[in-house]
Amino acid sequence: MPSGFLLGSSKLSLLLSSLLLSAHPSLAQQTNVARILIYSATADFRHDSIPTAVDALMKLGPHSNIAFDHTEDKTWFNDDTLAQYDALLFLSNTGEVLDDAGKTALRNYLDLGGNFVAVHAASDALRNTTWYQEEVGAAFDYHPEITNANVDVVGPPHPSTAGLMNVWPVRDEMYNFKSDPRAIGAVVVLSADESNPGPRKYDQGTPHPTAWYQEHGAGIDENGTAGRSFYTSLGHLNETWKDSLFLGHVMGGITWTLQSNTTGAFNASARVGNGVPTSNGTNSSSTASHSGTGTSSPR
Question: Per the record, which residues fall in region Disordered (predicted)?
Fold first, then answer.
């Protein structure tokens, strides 16, 4: 079991609100709501923890001035719809979850400075799309059986690790990757603690990368606007998405991502995000509800 508290939703929300505001004091002063689209479509293996994860994020969003929307409809991936969001969150996606039109819209969004968060199996999606893999940071290779493991906090201080002990015991899958995310500029914040990793086909670097961030979206058009990206490979089990330490880790990564200088909710010069006019001239904040509870229905 993870080492955090398994709390009721109200107590968990209060705890995480305190943790997040201590990590990001500016959130308390922000009156605009950041909008994030959760995309959890799968084409191969499907995690049964996806509904639990979506529910947890929806409940925690209002405590960080975030309105989450959720879809598994790939037709949402068009320029006007994506432009409404300050960040996209890919949640345990597997396989080819976007068609060519959707990939083009995603790439356009990232080139305009859109921010990106990916969780767990999202590193196993769009396997033949190099720029997507680089936006995540590395492509999934394999994992051993789910295990009790220690994860080490490494690298510089970061909101995604602010509430963690230096050695964090978890029960999860320890992902291995086809490349070292540090090779494209990612900064690793969590590493799997392993004494005898055994032979690997690919060099993923040392220490074993488990979660990381990128200050800009690597691998996208070099003339594009730089956004932020964050990835964590943890999040396999339903109980993980009820654990206070894990949720603090994920929400810390999300709130850090939203502090980029390309977030429309907080920067008048941004080209995507809440409040940025869409191509039809309407303000993006008026095109869908952002009450903080989110929606799962197409617009």
Answer: 269-299
